[in-house]
Amino acid sequence: MIDTIVWQEQGIQQAAETLRRGGLVAFPTETVYGLGADARSSEAVAGIFGAKGRPSDNPLIVHIADRSQLGELVEPYPALAGELMERFWPGPLTIVLPAKPGALSPLVTANLPTVGVRMPDHPLALELLSRAGVPVAAPSANRSGRPSPTLAGHVLEDLGGRIDGVIDGGATGVGLESTVVELEGNGAIRILRPGGVTEEALKRAFPAVSVISEAETGEQPAKPRSPGMKYTHYAPRGELTVVQGPEERVISYINLLAEEARHEGMKTGVLAFSEHAGSYRADLVLDLGSENRLDEAAHRLYAHLRKLDEAGVGRIWSEGCEPGGLGGALMNRMLKAAGGRAIRLDR
Ligand code: TXA
Ligand code: MG
């Protein structure tokens, strides 16, 4: 056990020095809190895997504050990658680029020839990264298998005593991890992980480019291109099922199953949009916000999953949403948290 320091904004210089010394520093981004270490140092990066209990074949995203840092990290990349940076950085877009051999710890890339890079859109993250002056590898700052942290308190719950410190920047904005994209040889953009930059936004920005999206379901492709997609991430301790269909049917179905579960002595929970939250009978009903504001649901989802754990809820049902816009990323995370358990009710 080590003492984990909680830094406020004034502590950023100390946090940056901790990173430069090879320490582990959690910091807020616009998506979720990340757990950072110097991406060039295998010793430092090994600390991330140790603290998180993360499988080592899952590569990490490298965070930079300035495009001038790219030269030492990656090989020449397609012009489209530069245009993506121009349009979406700083922001929730990770771009998979050809890695410069020897520039990064092989633990960061999990020995792939590529590296995922992003510039986070958060003033404290950018300040930390530029003061540290080193490329910072940072996965989400949760124990592996737990929901990603959207508050400094979540980081402490999972990693307190295991990392050097966390910068407290309050609640993160988007609430879901960045969109990860790869550029295909034929010039297409492939979305490996849906996130804050939506498929629609990519198509709007580059109408002449084809944008390919991997399955939005929780089903596991046989050989995932983004290694992280094959793990059951973000899982609450209770058993979660996503239910979709006409609202009346969804409500009565969930209420029926919740009543049965309660008879069996189980604590029950429901994640519902504001429009229907009052219609559920469960021990804990958590409001995702309006179904017309999926950004709000994205912002709340992970904190809600943690609350369900804290309350010791054994069976959870969540309303689903349509896959347009942020709905794609939201459903992707919900289905992952549910380990793929989903039910679609007919009319
Ligand atoms: O929003 C985010 O991206 C957060 C914050 C902290 O920046 N970070 C994050 O990191 O979500 P992590 O490690 O939890 O997820 C990284 C994802 C994984 O799905 C991983 O497989 C994929 O990015 N990835 C990383 N490098 C890759 C590469 N070279 N090729 C394909 N996928 C890669
Ligand atoms: Mg993660």
UniProtKB/TrEMBL annotation:
Keyword Nucleotide-binding among UniProt keywords: yes
Q: Which GO terms describe its cellular component?
A: cytoplasm
One Gene Ontology term from the biological process aspect of the record: tRNA processing
Keywords, A to Z, come to: ATP-binding, Cytoplasm, Nucleotide-binding, Nucleotidyltransferase, Transferase, tRNA processing
What SUPFAM superfamilies would the database entry show?
Answer: YrdC/RibB
Give every YrdC-like domain span: 9-197
Single GO MF descriptor = ATP binding
Name the residues that bind L-threonine: T31, A138, S178
Please verify whether the record's keywords include tRNA processing: yes
Q: Where in the cell is it found?
A: Cytoplasm
EC annotation from Swiss-Prot or TrEMBL: 2.7.7.87
Q: Where does ATP bind?
A: R54, N58, H63, T114, R118, S140, S148, R193, Y234
Domain of life assignment = Bacteria
Reactions catalysed = L-threonine + hydrogencarbonate + ATP = L-threonylcarbamoyladenylate + diphosphate + H2O
- A Pfam family this protein belongs to? Sua5_yciO_yrdC
Q: What class of enzyme is it?
A: transferase
The entry assigns this protein to a family as follows: Belongs to the SUA5 family.
What is this protein's function? Required for the formation of a threonylcarbamoyl group on adenosine at position 37 (t(6)A37) in tRNAs that read codons beginning with adenine.
Record protein name field: Threonylcarbamoyl-AMP synthase
Q: What species is given as this protein's source?
A: Paenibacillus soyae
